[in-house]
Amino acid sequence: MALPNEISGSADESMDSQSHNKRPISSILIVIAMQTEALPLVDKFQLTEDLNSVFPKEVPWVRYHGTYKDLQINLIWPGKDLALGVDSVGTISASLVTYASIQALKPDLIINAGTAGGFKAKGASIGDVFLVSECAFHDRRIPIPVFDLYGVGLKQALSTPNLLKELNLKVGKLSTGDSLDMSAQDEASITANDATVKDMEGAAVAYVADLFKVPAIFVKAVTDVVDGDKPTAEEFLQNLATVSAALDRAVTQVINFISGKCIAEL
Q1: Which end of the chain is more exposed for a tag (fewer CB within 10 A), N or C?
Q2: d(CA 15, CA 225)
Q3: Nearest-5° angle of CA 211, CA 152, CA 20?
Q4: What element of type H or E holds 238?
Q5: How far apart are CA 189 and CA 149, in angstroms?
Q6: Local structure of 107: helix, strand or coil
Q7: Nearest to residue 65, comparing CAs of 80, 83, 52?
Q8: Where is the Nucleoside phosphorylase domain (predicted)?
Q9: Pair 37, 115: CB distance under 8 Å
């Protein structure tokens, strides 16, 4: 039997959640993995780099911030790997920056924006932009009962029926792993996840957002067709700049729609 204060605490949490859902959104955290993806949005929203970082001095993470319409926007890019100088892509950086950003910035909503591979068998083409319905991992294979479900780590994205109707975006499931290529085992797991798009960050962001009960949406633009006839790395690099521009337009539309609304109105 729950103690009275436990019951009260649960009720208070429920009321806080309902109240949060009905308050206008005032703070958005955008988590984005690559500089090429981030900079068009930095320019679009006229964000300024934070030179007195809210993050530990040892990490390469970069925060851009500013006000757009009635929204405080914080865009976090994990920066360049300190040893190799390449974008800090993947689930480890994504989960760390999401955790630290939630702690430091207390956002009302998280947007994980980025490029992704798409599957033509599921209706994806180069330049398509998807709003993700759910996220799962495809490379955490733990063939033990219940641990297998933990490995997949299925998380639902925030339901946004009004946003979908207004912007007419495509909808698909996202599968996340730490490799750009796709092994036969990964392919089987991605198929089991019923994924339309695959990336290297989304499910990690979803995991942390779920821990702290921060609503999260995922906007993914297709750079390469995974089940096509071109090498993934070649097609990804060839289309990155162009598709990043499509991502920029879609995220701008999303944020324009969010402005002045509460979570429940999305």
Answers
A1: N
A2: 44
A3: 25
A4: helix 232-258
A5: 12
A6: coil
A7: 52
A8: 28-255
A9: yes
List, in sequence order, every residue forming a beta bridge with 80; answer none if it has no partner: 87
Domain 25-261: homologous superfamily in CATH:
Nucleoside phosphorylase domain (3.40.50.1580)
**What is the helix (H) or strand (E) element at residue 103, kind and residue range?**
helix 91-105
CB-based burial, 85-119: b 16+ in 10 Å, e otherwise = eebbbbbebbbbbbbbbbeebebbbbbbbbbbbbb
Amino acid letter, residue 59: V
> Where are the extended beta strands (E) located within the chain?
27-31, 48-49, 62-68, 71-77, 109-118, 129-137, 155-156, 170-176, 197-199, 216-225
Alpha-carbon distance of 205 to 19, in angstroms, equals 24
Residue at 255: amino acid letter: I
The structure tokens listed for 89 are 């892509």
Quick check: helix, strand or coil at residue 261? coil
The tokens 């956002």 sit on which residue? 107
Number of other residues whose CB lies within 10 A of the CB of residue 133: 18
Give 30-94 as a DSSP string: EE-S-HHHHHHHHHHTT-EE-SS-SS-TTS--EEEEEEETTEEEEEEE--B-TTT-SB--SHHHH
Residue labelled with tokens 């360049």: 80
pLDDT per residue rounded down to tens, the chain (266 residues): 444 444 445 555 444 555 567 889 999 999 999 999 999 999 999 999 999 999 999 999 999 999 999 999 999 999 999 999 999 999 999 999 999 999 999 999 999 999 999 999 999 999 999 999 999 999 999 999 999 999 999 999 999 999 999 998 899 999 999 998 899 999 999 999 999 999 999 999 999 999 999 999 999 999 988 988 888 888 888 888 888 888 999 999 999 999 999 999 99
